Amino acid sequence: xxxxxxxxxxxxxxxxxxxxxxxxxxxxxxxxxxxxxxxxxxxxxxxxxxxxxxxxxxxxxxxxxxxxxxxxxxxxxxxxxxxxxxxxxxxxxxxxxxxxxxxxxxxxxxxxxxxxxxxxxxxxxxxxxxxxxxxxxxxxxxxxxxxxxxxxxxxxxxxxxxxxxxxxxxxxxxxxxxxxxxxxxxxxxxxxxxxxxxxxxxxxxxxxxxxxxxxxxxxxxxxxxxxxxxxxxxxxxxxxxxxxxxxxxxxxxxxxxxxxxxxxxxxxxxxxxxxxxxxxxxxxxxxxxxxxxxxxxxxxxxxxxxxxxxxxxxxxxxxxxxxxxxxxxxxxxxxxxxxxxxxxxxxxxxxxxxxxxxxxxxxxxxxxxxxxxxxxxxxxxxxxxxxxxxxxxxxxxxxxxxxxxxxxxxxxxxxxx
Length: 417
Fold this sequence. Notes:
Elements: E1 2-8, H1 11-19, E2 28-29, E3 32-33, E4 36-40, H2 51-61, E5 71-77, H3 87-101, E6 108-112, E7 117-123, H4 137-152, H5 170-179, H6 184-198, H7 203-213, E8 216-222, E9 228-235, E10 248-249, H8 250-253, H9 259-267, H10 271-286, H11 296-347, H12 354-368, H13 380-393, H14 395-406
Antiparallel strand pairs: 1-5, 2-3, 4-6, 5-7, 6-7, 8-9, 9-10
C-alpha cells in the first residue's frame, strides 16, 4: 500500500476535486462519477458532495488563522493484485493510521474514489483551537502502513527516505546506466531495509535469520570488549574481480542502517509487534474471568501471568514467521529496484552503447544530406529505424551517409589502405 502526503489551505478546492470527475474522468465509484464519503467524523457516509464536511472543516480551521497550511491530505492506494478492501476495512485503516499518527481526534473525513484507493483529509486544527503539528508525518505514516500491510496481507510497498537511500558512487551509477543492472549497493540496501521493517523489536538473532532468508550475508563487527559496534552486509554471490566477497558497512548503505540507529530498532517493538502484544493482552484478559469469591488482587495477578505467557507465545510465533515474511519482502523490494534501473536504462541518454552512438551519428549525417524526416522529437529507436529504411532502399546512399558521418578529410572506403 502506498501513502502519499501533502499539506495545503484550500479545503473547498480539495473537496471539489475529490468529489468531482477528476482530471481525466478517472474518479468513478460504484458506477457514478466522483468520490463518496465512507468514514471519518465529518459529513455522512455516502455523501457525494463536499458541502457538509468542507464547511465543518473550515469552521475548525478558522479558530487558528495563524496556521497557514491547516489541511493535511493523504491518499492510500493498494497494489495491483491486492484484494479489494470494503468501505468498513478502509475506515478501520484510516482510523488506525489516525490513532498511530495522532490526528484521530481532529476533524477528518475519508473519500473513496475507486476500488483501490481512498483519500483522507484532516484539519490540523481542532474545534477547540488546538493544533496537531504533524512532525515526522512521513515516517510515522510509513510505520503505520507497514503494520497495516502485515495485518491485512497486502503487498509490501517500498519505503524510501533520504536517510535510508544509499549514496551511490559515480562508477556505480555509470555501470548501472551502461548495463541496465541495479547497483549491488542499492539492491542490498533495499533488502536489508525490508528486513529491518519486518523484524523490528524481535532482536538480533531474528534479524540475522531473516537476512539469511533474504539472500544477504551478514557479519557482526564485534569489539575486543565483546560489544557489537555494527554490521557489515553482502549479497550472496557478489564478488570482486579477485573472487572475494564484497562487503558494505551498514552506514554505507544508508544512515538508517548505521549501528547508532539500527541497534535500538532491533530491540524496540514496532507498530506491528505492539499490535500483536496488545491483542494478546486483550484476548487473555477477556478469557480469564474472575472466579467466585476470588480476591481482586489474586485475579489481577492471575490475569497478568496469563497475559505474559500469551505475549511470549505470540512473540515467539512472530519470531518464527518473521524470517520468511522478511525474505519475501526483501525479494519484492529488490525486484522493484532492478525494474527501476532497467527502465532507467531504456530512457537515459547516458546509456548509448557504441553501436547506438554510431547509429545516431549516421542518422544526423543522413539529416545533413537532406533526409526528408526531421530529427526533432524523434527517439533514438525511431532514428535508427529511419536509417535502416534508407540503407535497405539504397545501399549507395547509405554509404554516402556513413561517409558524411565520418567527417571531411577521411578515407571513407579504405581505398588508400
